[in-house]
# Entry
Amino acid sequence: MKKGLLIIRWTVGLLFIFSGLIKANDPLGLSYKMQEFFEVWNLHGLDSYTLFFAMVMNVFEVLAGVAVIIGWRMRLFSWLLLLLIIFFTFLTGYALFSGKIKTCGCFGDCLPLTPLQSFEKDIALMILILVLFLSHRRIESIVKASLALSVLLLVTAATTFGQFYVLKHLPLVDCLPYKKGNNILEQMQTPAGAIPDSFSIVFTYERNGKKVEFDQAHFPEDFDSTYIFQDRKDKLVKKGNGKVARILDFSLQTLSGADTTAAVFARQEPYMLVFVKDLNKVDDWASGLEEIAKLAARKKLTLLMVTADAEKSVARFPDIPILTCDATVIKTAARANPTYFMMRGATVVSKTSYADADQVIREIQQLP
# Structure
C-alpha cells in the first residue's frame, strides 16, 4: 500500500509541477484563456484580474506538486488538490460538452490538448487525488517541517520571480506559432485533410406572443412583418476533425485600410516588425524604439510598427511607418509590449522584448 501511495504521490506531484511550470513560462497565455471563459460566461468584469489569477494558480500548482511529493501537510493539500481538480474537471467538461471553448489551456500552448483529452486527463487525476485524500493519514513527510517549509517558500519565490521575468523578457520556451524560425505564411495554411465544423444559423422570432425558431433553410411559408426578430445564433451541426491553421486572421493593413500582408512578406532583404498592442506605458520604451529606428535607418533596414492603436502611434512616432493589425493577433504574436521581430520574407529570424533592446541594437549593428 505504501509503495502504491508513493507512486501516486509522485505521479500527481509531477503532473502538477509540470502543469504549473509550463503555464508559468507564459502566464499571459493562461490569462487570455481565462478571459475566453469569462467572455462565454459574461463575466467581463473579471478580465482585469486574470493575469493575477493565472500567476497565483501557477504558483499553487507547483507548490502543491512539491508538497505532495514530500508528503507535507497532506490533510491540507489533499483537500486543496481535490477542490482544484473538481474545478478543473468542471472547466474541461464545460469545454467538451458546450463546444464553446476549443482548448482548455491545461498545459498552455506548449502541449495543446483537445477538450476530450483534457477531460479524460482530469478524470484520471481526480481518481488518483481521491486515493490520496482518503489515505492522507497514512502519508508522512519525508523531511522535517522546517526544511519542508523552506523548500516550499523557495519554490514559491522562484516560480513567482520566473513569471515576472517572462512577462518582461518573453517566455523562455516559445511555443507560439510566431516563434523564431517559423514561417508565418506556412502557419496560416489549413492542414491537409482538415474538416471544418459545420454550423447552421438559427433565428429566433416572436409572433403572436410566442417564440419561433428556425434555421436559414426552413423559413416559415407565411413569414411576414408579423414575425418580430429577437435573436440569431450559430448552431453546431457537424463537428469537424479539429485540424485548423495555427495562425488565423493575421493581416497587416496600411493606414488607408489596404491589405499589405503579401507585399510585406514578399521582402527578401531583412526587415523589422515592431508589434505594439497599445501605448499605455509608452514612456517606458519609446526612447529605445527611437534609438533602434535611427540605427535601422542608418543601416537601411526597413522598420515597420504594427499596432492596434494607429491614431496614437502616428501622433507619438510620426517618423516611423505604421501598419495596423488586430489587437488579439498582436497579443498572441507578442507577449511583451512591444516586441521586435527581425524578419526575412515571412520567416521570423529573431524575436526580442523591448526590455532587451540592447540585443536588438547589436543584431542590427551586425547587419552588413
